[in-house]
Design brief:
The complex is a heterodimer of chains A (209) and B (138).
Chain A (H helix, E strand, L loop, with lengths): L9 H20 L6 H14 L3 E4 L2 E4 L3 H8 L3 H16 L7 H25 L4 H28 L5 H11 L1 H21 L15
Antiparallel strand pairs in A: 1-2
Helix pairs in contact in A: 1-4, 1-5, 2-3, 2-4, 3-5, 3-6, 3-8, 4-5, 5-6, 6-7, 6-8
Chain B lengths: L2 H19 L7 E3 L6 E6 L9 E5 L5 E6 L5 E3 L8 E5 L5 E5 L12 H26 L1
Antiparallel strand pairs in B: 1-2, 2-5, 3-4, 3-6, 6-7
The chains are: A mainly alpha (209), B alpha+beta (138).
């Protein structure tokens, strides 16, 4: 889910950088002392996630983990992805420095949508383990789906064959959506049961676990 | 669950994640050096770039040939063309350039697990510094 240098048009790069800069500013303002260990651990997971690839025919796709990161971090997902992608660009030449803003935006905006969706479902709907696991599964899968859609929008200005590209990217990410949905559900249920303080931004008291 | 226990579980998860990823490469497109009228575009996880657009440029940086890679990630051209620069790009936003005489990055010489560990080290230092400065300002 990384766009390389020299692929995108300048207005797309500028728009991506502006969105990322705004998100990072809000995220850093939102960052408390007690959030730092959690944010650091999730940033490390995001940094490593792109090394875990899912073989798919002649090619492969890698994990994104933006739905999972969004549920745990909220707005702090912007600085987390910025640092993770910067290190990936420098150490792995994965993505690029000029495309950093766009790459951060296409994963962090869906992550934020997942955060608000998860929060509204968990806080409003009375339920138990089922509601928690289904909503986290949906967030994990939705994060990847929305990222794929944003990736296609970023590329539509420079790619000629839009439908061909859309089919290719969407189909190749279906297994990733499934894997990330399951992974997010497992992680959220585990953390809510063992360390609910890690999700202090979300009101979990209405859940009947 | 105590803080120490959570920390131990987190470190164990990271170590396991690193162990799983050793030998597995990131998804970066690479154009290999053209040889005998063939140039190969692949990803650094070992998979090949099928159907990627390939452009060949001469020493004056003028386009001399365009085409697509086949199912083996190979684009064939007449051997006497001798491209100075080759650019490959796929539909998913991956792009790679090979240029004659370009020096490879010093980081490329390091194994992937060393680079991953270096990144984790930088993140730990960054986390520690942020904690230090945030607690100082409070």
């Amino acid at each position: 889910m990384h766009i390389s240098e020299g692929v995108l048009a300048a207005p797309v790069l500028a728009a991506g950088a502006a969105v990322a800069a705004g998100g990072v500013a809000v995220g850093l303002k939102d960052l408390d002392d007690q959030d730092i260990p959690k944010t650091s651990i999730i940033t490390s997971a995001l940094f490593i996630a792109s090394l875990i690839h899912v073989p798919l025919g002649p090619t492969s796709v890698h994990l994104v983990l933006n739905g999972l990161a969004g549920v745990f971090l909220g707005w702090k997902v912007f600085p987390a992805f910025l640092i993770a992608f910067f290190l990936q660009a420098v150490l792995f030449q994965h993505g690029g420095l000029t495309t950093l803003g766009v790459n951060v935006s296409i994963v962090a905006v869906p992550a934020l949508i997942c955060y608000y969706l998860f929060r509204s479902v968990v806080e409003r709907k009375r339920g138990g383990l089922k509601v928690l696991s289904v909503s986290s599964f949906v967030c994990g899968a939705l994060g990847v789906l929305l990222t794929v859609i944003m990736l296609m929008f970023a590329l539509v200005f420079t790619q000629d064959s839009f439908m061909e590209m859309a089919n290719l990217i969407l189909l190749s990410h279906l297994p990733v959506m499934l894997i990330e949905g399951v992974l997010t559900a497992i992680c959220v249920v585990f953390i809510v049961k063992t360390k609910p303080e890690a999700m202090q931004e979300i009101e979990l008291s209405s859940l009947n676990l | 669950m105590s803080k120490n226990k959570l920390l131990r579980i987190s470190v164990l998860c990271l170590v396991l994640l690193l162990a799983v990823t050793v030998g597995v490469q990131a998804h970066r497109m690479i154009v290999e050096e053209p040889e005998d009228g063939q140039v190969k575009a692949r990803f650094d996880d070992g998979s090949v770039a099928v159907g990627a657009d390939v452009s060949l440029y001469d020493i004056q940086d003028e386009l001399i040939l365009e085409g697509e890679t086949n199912e083996d990630g190979i684009f064939e051209f007449e051997a006497e063309l001798e491209p100075h620069r080759v650019v490959a790009q796929d539909d998913a936003g991956h792009r790679a350039v090979w240029e004659s005489g370009a020096e490879p990055s010093a980081l490329d010489a390091l194994p992937m697990w060393v680079r991953a560990a270096l990144g984790i080290g930088i993140l730990i230092i960054l986390g520690a510094l942020t904690t230090f400065f945030k607690s100082g300002s409070n």
